[in-house]
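Incident log, structure service

09:12 report received: a user says their structure output differs between two submissions of the same chain.
09:20 pulled the input from the user's history:
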Amino acid sequence: MNIVSLEPLGVNETVINAMKEEFSKRGHDLTIYGDRTVDENVLATRAKDADVVIVTNIPLSSTFIENVKNLRMIAVAFTGYDHIDLEACREKKITVCNAAGYSTHAVSELAIALMLDVLRKITANDSKTRKQKGREGFLGRELFGKTVGIIGTGAIGTQTARILKIFGCELIGFSRTEKQAFKDLGGRYLTLDEVLQESDIVSLHLPLNKVTRQIIDAPKIALMKPTGVLINTARGGLVDSDALSKALDERRIAGAGIDVYENEPPINSKHPLMGVPNTVLVPHLGYATREAMLIRADIVKQNILKWLKGEPQNVVT
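09:34 re-ran on a clean worker, output below:
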């Protein structure tokens, strides 16, 4: 089998060489490209002889899938897979497996960090300090005692809730399926509207699909408290950025911490959230830790090995 990673995997040469050796001793070749591109022609050239491709969050369209004639499996080195044309994969009987769970701790920790940054204005006050300014009457807000609404109580949402429990927060949630682990933390399930109305902080942890796209739109944002904060470390398409920008600009909600956008950063200078007040923007780094990259590489390797044995795991189609 010819296995091709269309981009780097974020791990060191020792790990890469160990992966190559493991596949080689089973009679398979692993090629890993050292740069990232979204140019579909370049991607198709890289994958032209591949039986298996590895990709993170680079979009793979039906055109790419059609052009890579030998393709039999896509190993997604990412939790989400909305950037893969799954229908085209089904038509060509291509197995798609994701790296579920690799970034659970990394993303949940960033969600907490964004909450603290927005409440205490850490980034803004860092800038003031470097300009030789003082506190000048500033008062922040504590995370302790806040009601936090977790929208999507899967692995990451529940891990975020665990950390928030330690901070002394009250937990409420909305999810397609209720999870006992969330209830065991004292979490109460409510309707989406009730979560938005009652929360001091709303943290999004949903996948992006036809049902969840712009689930947080203007009417939903209007339900939030004037002191409310929105945190999104999940998918940019969950939120209507124009509506969020307008609500922040008009001080109808108190702040937002955003890691994800409609497209991968760098985001356009005219993006609606650029320049709005009380907002912390980071360039999709929730999953990007050394620890998570090592876990991810191992899951990808195991997904491919399991598929080669006829025992695929983490299958999404």
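09:41 both user submissions now match this output. Likely a transient worker issue. Closing.
09:42 reviewer note: The domain at 2-102+289-308 is CATH 3.40.50.720 (Rossmann fold). Residues 6 and 42 are 9 Å apart (CA to CA).
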